[in-house]
Design a protein that fits this description.
Length: 140
């Protein structure tokens, strides 16, 4: 008998293959934080250990992390846009910026079809996320 909870929604983070390890981790962390900012309900309750010491909350449901090449990221973004699924994104230009204002300016300077995507994150109904990420492999 399993106590597993089946969530109605799914969280997916897609990171470009070929990045340095620090870049992959950086992208995944920024994107996960962006999802919690967009969907505050994703944050669970605060933790407390057996001694009563408090800790910060975590995202309340699993995050699936996929790997994709540049074409796979573009295809995923296109599918999400066609289905009306909101996306958080990270572009290669953001590795050279140091703050949110400059990040937003770097993205705003490039049309959708020319974005140099290195990461995407989405939170939506399970079937929608499955359709948007179809064909991607879990990051290994």
């Amino acid at each position: 008998m399993s106590n597993a909870i089946v969530f109605e929604t799914k969280i997916a983070v897609v990171v470009r293959d070929g990045l340095a390890a620090w870049q992959k981790l950086n992208v995944a962390c920024f994107l996960a934080g962006g999802l919690v900012g967009a969907y505050p309900e994703l944050a669970g309750e605060r933790y407390r250990d057996g001694s009563g010491r408090p800790y910060g909350p975590l995202i309340r449901q699993p995050v699936l992390v996929f790997a994709a090449d540049s074409a796979g990221l573009t295809r995923t973004l296109t599918r999400a846009n066609e289905r009306g699924v909101p996306v958080s994104l990270y572009t290669a230009e953001l590795f050279a910026t140091g703050n949110d204002r400059d990040n937003r300016a770097a993205v705003a300077a490039v049309p959708t079809e020319a974005l140099d995507l290195v990461g995407l994150a989405l939170h939506a109904e399970r079937r929608e996320v499955d359709k948007v990420t179809r064909g991607l492999k879990l990051h290994g």
